[in-house]
């Protein structure tokens, strides 16, 4: 499955169906987002079949970014059964994200 690139219309159903989801809010022009992208891709491979890993382009899906109160990017939001329970803002090492996932699997 890899990384799911979300559109607003499909977002709610997809994250509600997943017991655990990690969503990266990003943009093409964002340097730190580009730095974080390989980390997100690696985590998607590592947690394949256990965690829904998705990306939301804030320029293409501003309503989702607004709904989650994303003020700076990259912002990674963690959801359990469709409800946000944690978030990380900025570039961080993979362990910052895997720690949250491992604790909630």
From TrEMBL:
Gene3D superfamilies found in the cross-reference section: Glutaredoxin
Keywords, in A-Z order: Disulfide bond, Electron transport, Redox-active center, Transport
Disulfide pattern: 30-33
Site note Deprotonates C-terminal active site Cys, residues: 24
Active site: 30 (nucleophile), 33 (nucleophile)
PANTHER family: GEO12009P1
Any coiled-coil regions, as ranges: none
InterPro entries: Thioredoxin, Thioredoxin-like_sf, Thioredoxin_CS, Thioredoxin_domain
GO BP: cell redox homeostasis
One GO cellular component, as annotated: cytosol
Name the UniProt record assigns to this protein: Thioredoxin
Thioredoxin domain sequence ranges: 1-105
